[in-house]
Write a structure and sequence with these properties.
Elements lengths: L17 H16 L5 H15 L9 H14 L9 H9 L5 H11 L2 E11 L2 E6 L5 E5 L12 E9 L2 E11 L4 H14 L3 H17 L5 H14 L4
Antiparallel strand pairs: 1-2, 1-4, 2-3, 4-5
Helix pairs in contact: 1-3, 1-5, 6-8, 7-8
């Protein structure tokens, strides 16, 4: 699974939004560490991700989103062997040659927070979120159109903080509102088991994929049936 990326491009345009600047830098990281001598590494990473998040095919509607999610996970979450993640490796290699704004953006990207979020409220160009995995409220700038977003919605995304502002990176995974009760019960059980953040997000990504494939079934039933074995495990 891959989406074609060009060679590392020029620095982000002056005055570019945080989201656009971050996207440019992420593309440069991927171009460096998904080609050449790193090709075998990215193939291994792709297979690992497909096993954990669910195997998706290029004729499925969620394919492009899943590609974006894999790229962010590979660049920002998965260490290269015993070393740092690709974005941190790129910063170490190139940070001294990058424009100051790009270097600061890349450092912020390395500190970005990937989680499951619940919408508290939408207020014009900003959105208030609660982090369901770590706790805490975050007020995030909306630099893209997310139609229909309402209080109570649940989604997986990554936020980055720069210059006192928070914004999203590229990848999103929305969960059906009607599945909220099943997801909350699963999260409570996962916390009691001490389950890690990645395991939780990957499990929910698998269920979302199942929901996409079984559109004849109610979303809440798909989530309830898929998550019930893991929810019930809290009583053991």
């Amino acid at each position: 699974m891959s989406k074609r990326r060009g060679a590392p491009g020029p620095a982000a345009e002056p005055g570019a939004s945080v989201g656009a600047r971050v996207a440019t830098l992420l593309d440069a990281v991927l171009a460096r560490f998904a080609a050449g001598r790193w090709q075998d590494e990215v193939v291994r990473a792709r297979e690992e991700w497909l096993e954990r998040a669910g195997r998706v095919y290029d004729d499925e509607g969620s394919y492009e989103h899943r590609v974006d999610t894999f790229h962010e996970w590979y660049a920002l979450q998965r260490p290269l062997g015993d070393g740092p993640v690709p974005a941190a490796r790129y910063l170490a290699d190139e940070g001294g040659r990058l424009p100051a704004e790009d270097a600061a953006s890349l450092r912020a990207l390395c500190r970005s927070q990937w989680s499951l979020w619940q919408v508290i409220e939408v207020d014009g160009p900003a959105i208030a979120l609660f982090d369901l995995l770590r706790g805490g409220r975050f007020d995030v700038d909306l630099d893209r159109d997310l139609p229909g977003l309402e209080a109570g919605d649940l989604f997986e995304a990554r936020i980055i903080g720069l210059h006192g502002r928070l914004c999203f990176t590229r990848a999103f995974l929305f969960h059906p509102r009607e599945a909220s009760a099943s997801i909350e019960a699963f999260l409570e059980a996962a916390r009691r088991r001490g389950e890690g953040q990645e395991a939780i997000l990957f499990r929910l990504a698998q269920v979302r994929l199942r929901c996409d494939r079984y559109r004849n079934l109610a979303a809440d039933k798909v989530y309830e049936q898929a998550l019930w074995p893991f929810t019930r495990a809290r009583a053991r």
